[in-house]
Every structure is written in structure tokens, then in C-alpha cells.
Amino acid sequence: MTKTLNISSLIPAIILTAFMMLSVFIALPASAAEIQEKCTLTRDITMENTEGTQVTIVKGSTVTAGNGDIGTGSGAYKSWGTICLLNTVNAVTDWAFFILISVAFVFILIAGFLWMTGRGEPDKMKQAANMIGAALVGIVIAILARVLPAVITGILT
Q: Measured between alpha carbons, how far is 4 from 46 in angstroms, rounded to an integer?
């Protein structure tokens, strides 16, 4: 008797693994012994200063706590917490996008293999179709993860 691998039973394990990988990136800064009041930007961030002007802080800039207004060029801003939060949200959503797209790609490959080797068996065809549907849902969630930083930026600024 041969055993077959039911791919749909692996979905919870894959999702759990993705969350565990993301939790490492979230937990590492929280476990630091000393809270640092600075961050180095991984992406350009555009915000409005107190005068209502749009100012872009470029990637690679170090943002620290201070009394300066955004756009003064000092790097020490009153709103450094908001800027660093946006930077963290951008980094987490970039990783989430990469992981979700990778898992969706693997699902589509496995579903294609099932479809090709199914020889017209309705069960295998249905399983392949369900996997492709799950992959498409994952792609939609990944796209929403890319939109999340823009929504948060709109709320915080």
C-alpha cells in the first residue's frame, strides 16, 4: 500500500512557519537590553512637517530623538518615533510580501504538478484547483501587505 502526501494538510504548518520567521524580526528589537532612540531608514519616507511642507528623508539616514522639525537636516526630530515606526512597518511588510509570494509560487508549482500527473482524476484536479485558489488568495494578501505602509503613513502623518 502506498501512502500519498496530502498537500492541503501542510498549509497550517507553512503558515505557522511564516509567522515564526516574522516573529524573530519583531522580537529581536524588543529584547534589546537598552532602548535606542534612533533608527536607520531602509526606505525613503515622505512626511509633512509643522509648516505643512512635504519633506522626504532619504534611505540610509539616521533618525534620532531631538527637537528639530522634519526637513531641518539635523536628523534629530521630535517625531522620530513615528518615522522609526514607519520604517519598521515598511521592513516587516517587505518580508511578509516576499514570504507570501514565495509560498504562493510553490503552491502554484505543486498544483501544476498535481494537475499534470492527475490524468483526469477528479480528486486530483479539484485538489490542484483548490491549491491554485489558495495561492491566489496569498497573492492578494501579499499585495495588501504592500499597501499597508501607505495606509499607516496616511493615518500617522
A: 52
Range of the domain at 42: 34-156
**68: which residues sit within 8 A by CB, 6+ positions away?**
74, 75, 76, 77, 78
Looking at the whole model, is its pTM more than 0.85?
no
Q: Are 55 and 49 in contact (CB under 8 A)?
A: yes
Among residues 17, 21, 82, 23, the alpha carbon closest in space to that of 49 is found at 82
Series of mean pLDDT values for 10-residue runs along the chain (157 residues): 62 66 58 64 78 80 73 66 82 86 90 87 88 90 83 74
Distances (CA, A) of 46 to 94, 99, 137: 18, 26, 31
Cα distance between residue 153 and residue 89, in whole Å: 10
Q: Domain count of the chain?
A: 1
Decide if 27 is inside a domain: no
CA dihedral 143, 45, 156, 20 (to 10 degrees): 50
